[in-house]
Amino acid sequence: MADIVKRTVSGAGFLAIVLCGLLINKFLFAGLVIFIMAGMMREFYVMTAGGRLELPGILSIATGITLFALIFLSAAQYMDARLICLAFIPLFAVMAGALRKGGDREGFGRFPYICTGLLYIAVPLSLSGLMVFDGDGNFGGGLMLCLFIIIWASDVGAYCVGMLLGRNGPKLCPAISPKKSWAGFWGGLVFAVGAAVLIRFAGMSGFPLLHCIVLSIMMHVAGVCGDLFESQWKRYFNVKDSGNIIPGHGGLLDRFDSALFAIPAGAVYLTAVGLM
Asked: pLDDT of 1-29, one tens digit each?
């Protein structure tokens, strides 16, 4: 019970911060994404580098922040989109750092993790800047809020139903995450679809109901894959949580692991059917 209370209080506080970033103005949104990106990349690099953040990791974080900032400024129509190529400048520094490590087998062996952090964390979060602006550069976090509501509903449903019905039932992927159950998977799916239906009838989304349901199903499945993907990394490096910044939840990577897969999946679907 104490753990549930701690998770609820800390989760509610962090939820309030996310809502402020999505709904108040574009600069709060940018600050929120940069904070989350830097925190997640730091956690990933500390985990993969044996508990320390080294110079290549710092340069990689700088690359991710630069990429997001340039995409954000371009989408807000503060600069020409061609200037996004400036993100290659810190990326070249990351590559140069890899060359410096060329004679160090152990050091160079960590370079694939640097590239993974960029592709896994920095790129999806950077592209989120394209989802909060319309073609005229006007900011609106409504779509991102709807996607997050679906993700949160999926997580809550999976946790609650899994705790109630899945403890002794068949497991979803026991080799990677022994606690995740099929009951939790289906519970999360029901909650995600229910959230999408509520969003539609509450007027938060103008998408057709069928598309809202399909979107929620795709995002739930992608979110579960994202959760398992992060669990695989933690199991490989023998860590329980990626960090401890959110009491009861662990690190930022623990909190947003499903979003890294679910939001891009949602964006791809909406783009494919011409709704975004």
From this structure: 556 666 677 767 778 888 888 888 999 99
* Structure token digits, residue 200: 């539609």
Is pTM beyond 0.70 here? yes
Burial string for 54-77 (b: 16+ CB within 10 Å, else e) reads: bebbbbbbbbbbbbbbbbbbbbbe
Largest CA distance in the chain: 61
Between the CA atoms of 114, 116, 120 and 126, what dihedral angle is there, to the nearest 10 degrees? 50
Write out the residue range of the structural domain in which residue 267 sits: 1-23+140-276
Cα(197)–Cα(185) distance, integer angstroms: 19
Among candidate residues 85, 105, 138, the one where a domain is terminated = 138
Domain's final residue, options 115, 138, 161: 138
CA 146 to chain centre: 15
Pull the structure tokens for residue 170: 């068949």
Quick one: 17 and 51 in the same domain?
Answer: no
Least confident of 25-39, 109-123, 235-249: 235-249
